[in-house]
Amino acid sequence: MSERNYWLAGDIIRVFATFGVLIVHVVSHHLKNPDVFNVAWWSLNLIESLSIWAVPGFIMLSGALLLSPNRYDEPIIDFYRKRITRIGIPFLFWVGAYLTWEKWRQGQPLSIDYVVQSIISSDVSWHLFFLFIIVGLYIMTPWVRLWVSRMSSRDELSLIITLFAIMVVGDIINRYLSQWGWNAATRWIPYLGYYIAGHYIVYHAPKKFGTYVLLFTIGFLGNIIGKYIEMRLATGSIGLFYNTSYLSITMIPLAIGLFGIIVTLAEFISVNNLFLRICRLLAPSTLGVYLIHLMIMLELQERFEIASPFHAGSAILFAVSLAIISFAITYFIGILPVVRSIVDCHTQKVFSQFKKS
What is the pLDDT of residues 72-119, one digit of tens each? Predict the structure, then answer.
């Protein structure tokens, strides 16, 4: 990545990863609870395996941007001040909103003990664990910057491989032999490998498109087949090939491969390309879409009795509809002064920059 204010691949990754998150949540019910392993189930398995890279993709993107060499001299106070505005306010608001909303849906009162335990365990809604990961990584970023700035590219690669190896083995042991859980203070630790990998792929890794395609193919096919075998042996299980730890032996090459493919291909896309212009328009709202979409999805399903999609076609249609609604609401919130900080989106600024481009 060249040292410039705008990075093409960043917006593409944000948009693709956001839609990937929507797909994963839309298909999760029927994928985990199949009546039969028919063509419809395999179609869900296919699109989920193309989408499951989303959270690692976001983490690698953050590593590429925040561990950038041109940020090494950024004062720690300035770094934390920016992060409080960009992620601190959304974190506090949406953690509170989802805790309150979940209890309201259950018809139960919101207790102090429930709030404290949920936050300590970082168990807030299906998807807000990502915020705990990002907050932890952000807190550690000044020290990680110092760490990687003193490493050779070979040492950095060795570190990434070591971190992934430790976390994969640890995840398998935990899944089958133990039951420890990460908490709010430690949730970021398993994802440090992805964070540093984002920096390595963008700044040090050879731009070998074929290598990324190979990694993606291995991870993609392994994830699809492994998931089927595991589900066949124990219907409804969430284990190595369908989980939200993103540390399986197939998930890591899948995510790294797809991230590398996008980064490599983006070098050949013109800034005036229509596709890129659309990504540039949507990218600033992706955090807001990530935060609000689950609430919208569950409310739509409950209020309008919308069944969970049972094949890829209906899942994609539902995800696209959910994306449109979520983007629209996010940009509406972004119009409102002060309130826009909960989605970190300034709508007027986004559209004015889009027109200039």
Answer: 889 999 999 999 989 999 999 999 999 999 999 989 999 999 999 999
Q: What is the pLDDT of residues 214-271, one digit of tens each?
A: 999 999 999 999 888 888 877 545 567 766 679 988 999 999 999 999 999 998 888 7
Contacts of residue 236, defined as CB under 8 A and 6 or more positions apart, other chains included, come to: 32, 33
Q: What is the pLDDT of residue 235?
A: 52
Alpha carbons 267 and 17: distance in angstroms, whole number: 19
What does DSSP assign to residue 71? G
How does pLDDT run across 276-290, given as a tens digit for each residue?
889 999 999 999 999
Q: Give the integer Cα–Cα distance in Å for 134 and 273.
A: 31
DSSP-derived letter for residue 86 is: I
Cβ atoms of 315 and 46 within 8 Å: the answer is: no
Per the CB < 8 A criterion, the answer to whether 109 and 357 are in contact is: no
Contacting residues for 70 by C-beta, under 8 A, at least 6 apart:
3
Average pLDDT of the chain is: 91
- How far is residue 33's CA from residue 297's CA, in Å, rounded to a whole number? 19
Characterize 165-191 residue by residue with b for buried, 16 or more Cβ atoms within 10 angstroms of its Cβ, and e for exposed.
Answer: eebbebbeebbeeeeeebebeebbbbb
340 and 346 Cβ atoms separated by less than 8 Å: yes
Q: Give 23-66 as a 3 state SS string.
A: HHHHHHHHHHCCCCCCHHHHHHHHHHHHHCCHHHHHHHHHHHHH
Contact 293, 285 (CB under 8 A): no
Buried b (16+ CB within 10 A) or exposed e, 134-148: bbbbbeebbebbeeb
Contact 26, 309 (CB under 8 A): yes
Between CA 346 and CA 344 the distance in angstroms is 7
d(CA 296, CA 26): 12
Residue 22 · residue 89 · CB < 8 Å: no
Residue 172 is predicted with a pLDDT of 82
Query: Whole-angstrom Cα distance, residue 68 to residue 86?
Result: 18
Q: Determine the pLDDT at residue 5.
A: 53
Extract the tokens encoding 9.
């691949």
